[in-house]
Amino acid sequence: MEQAEAGAAGSSPVHDQVVPAGSSSSRVIVHLDLDCFYAQVEMISNPELKGKPLGVQQKYLVVTCNYEARKLGVKKLMNVRDAKEKCPQLVLVNGEDLTRYREMSYKVTELLEEFSPIVERLGLDENFVDLTEMVEKRLEQLQSDEPSALTVSGHVYDNQPINLHDILHIRLLIGSQIAAEMREAMYNQLGLTGCAGVASNKLLAKLVSGIFKPNQQTLLLPESSQDLIHSLNHIKEMPGIGYKTTKRLEALGISSVHDLQTFSSKILEKELGISVAQRIQKLSFGEDNSPVTPSGPPQSFSEEDSFKCSSEVEAKNKIEELLASLLNRVCQDGRKPHTIRLIIRRYSSEKHYNRESRQCPIPSHIIQKLGIGNYDVMTPMVDVLMKLFRNMVNVKMPFHLTLLSVCFCNLKALNTAKKGTIDYYLTPSLSTTSRSGKHSFKMKDTHMEDF
DNA sequence: TGGGGTTAT
DNA sequence: ATAACCC
């Protein structure tokens, strides 16, 4: 789409470096961000919705909407009544069940993992990929007499010119080409559109991905990084500085990125602790050395529902409903959770974030039955959860809850028996026959945990 | 604000 | 177990 032609054929710019070669620890990171993800999934499920203003509803909120709806004034997290008032033609679909979104989300991550295994998920609709190694490989392969080989893909932030003699520019340019290939693959294989940002770290990649908005990509060159971070109007827009930290910074008179850059490090460390202080002050300069951490399979599964609950019977019914869904999910995953947690939210007029939880190990005899028929496990699990419930809520007194959530965590890969341990030789699937598929286990009555 | 997730303390 | 962060 845009600029940058290859240099003169004679002296390859790739090997004519301004910056020393491999010594540079500079990275190439891409941030990919699907456009209004839930709405896209809904339009794929039901193509008749395409072209119409569409909102995805959870309870009384429009949590996201397509661009048709945005043009008509609907915003994310808008009240349904306000949205309908702004846009009476708005079509609403219920998005409280995340199953299809979650499935599509993992298809995206898996597609990206084919490019490079270093993929970090952020929510259901964003991914970071560390492209550094891929870019190095393409640079080695590059016999640069073909002019299209060094053309940037997509936008360049601030329209900054690319210097083909600067190896950092070249590497990022290659990154932009890979990002374009990723977006093409997402569209061709999954029918999804999204934005991408390419930069030298996660913070900058994430900030720059949102510059050109639906279905476009932007490359940030190092010389423009200060302009990018100073384009933020307030420190609350900095990823990594959340609600609480923003309030504490404002109390110190810090509201702009420049304020944070120039504020006394010593005082900041005393106010926020050395860890947070040093991290966010680096962020204010656009510095972020946090690695792209491969997410792998999820660390936890949870199901929640916000609703009014003031009796033990209501709680039990909801817990059974949440648990049934969770058991299906955990069954599909193949791993087994070893811990279960119950989370509640109590009704209280003030108090911003109030949630309480109790957790306990899942009894081993229940864990064993988890793989196959989840029928026997329902009743004992509900019993465990109701004990946790009564531990938090005095059911002899009136109570008023507004949310219940059940979480499975501490997931282990079937069994963690290691070679040389007694478990190893007592576990049929390990010491003797194949350990091929996740459907092949049937160690029905082996109570390994009893050792 | 929903219905999820993560890591650090 | 909670608190902070992210979507």
From TrEMBL:
Its EC number is 2.7.7.7. Residues 29-242 form the UmuC domain. GO terms for molecular function: damaged DNA binding; DNA-directed DNA polymerase activity; metal ion binding. GO terms for cellular component: nucleus. Error-prone DNA polymerase specifically involved in DNA repair. Plays an important role in translesion synthesis, where the normal high-fidelity DNA polymerases cannot proceed and DNA synthesis stalls. Favors Hoogsteen base-pairing in the active site. Inserts the correct base with high-fidelity opposite an adenosine template. Exhibits low fidelity and efficiency opposite a thymidine template, where it will preferentially insert guanosine. May play a role in hypermutation of immunoglobulin genes. Forms a Schiff base with 5'-deoxyribose phosphate at abasic sites, but may not have lyase activity. Belongs to the DNA polymerase type-Y family. Interacts with POLH. Interacts with REV1. Interacts with ubiquitin. This is DNA polymerase iota. It comes from Balaenoptera musculus. The lineage of its organism: Eukaryota, Metazoa, Chordata, Craniata, Vertebrata. The chain holds residues 1 to 451 of 714 of the full protein.
